[in-house]
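Appendix B. One record, verbatim.
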Amino acid sequence: MEKVFYHLPGLFEFYDLYKAFLPLWRDHREYFYDWCDIGSIYGAPRDCIWGGGRVGFGDAEPEKVAALVKEYGISARLTFSNSLIREEHLADVECNALCRMFESVDTGLADGRNGAGNGAGLNGAGIIVHSDLLLDYIRTKYPGFYFISSTTKVITDFEQFVAELNRDEFRYVVPDFRLNRQFDKLNALTDAQKQKVEFLCNECCWFGCYDRKACYENVSRKSLGEDCADHKCVSPTAQRGYRFSDAMKNPGFIGIDDIQNVYAPAGFRHFKIEGRSLGSAIILEFLLYYITKPEHQLKVREEIYLDSSLDLF
């Protein structure tokens, strides 16, 4: 089976976690499945007006983040998926500064100079984007990036999804998780189209949600600094919050058995893990479940946080 690539959450939000985890990933590859690799880490800093998807709380210094991904040869993705960008937002000083900084980050992936490189052909950084206005602006001003069509577009119509795959501007397209199991249509895609599909694996949103676009729009308004009420989730189990065990029961969930036995043999290689608004403990559980061999999961926990003096209560 060809190697598959995970795209992980929390570029700015979970800098400290990745600073502890990535040395293990590099130095102890025997702990991890050999059929997968880290394709990218995505996220956005706090108060980033181009941000979307989740209200940003990443407070890591961009310079340190850029240095970390360069050291480990991992592609950084800036999550600029605000759907409500207007012309006056394009000149934002902080967002443009981020583009200048990350466009220049050479991870050494294309020529294999970095031994930790992921082999996914992702040299440099990417941009996850919703707004075509912002896409056109960044493509013109910062041509060094590659682009990912954001799942915040809530593409649930398969023909619309195919049209998005056929857009030359995007290297990858993340469909709505409710398309994850439409195997007859997915398997009918061309090989080139399959290489552009990036599935969202662990969504906990209600499969029957009819208000997903409104939820993302509310986040976009907050990112722009607008004074608006919080979106009220319509899920019958909204009060439970995110639970990985609940996500595993979602009809759109993609687990490691699915990846190895269904998606990868069919030619799909890219899988996105959500979680930017969650805590670092649950992100570690995602890393353990999706990329760590069961017999080494305890070792990874011990290296990251678990010791004999830790008290939970």
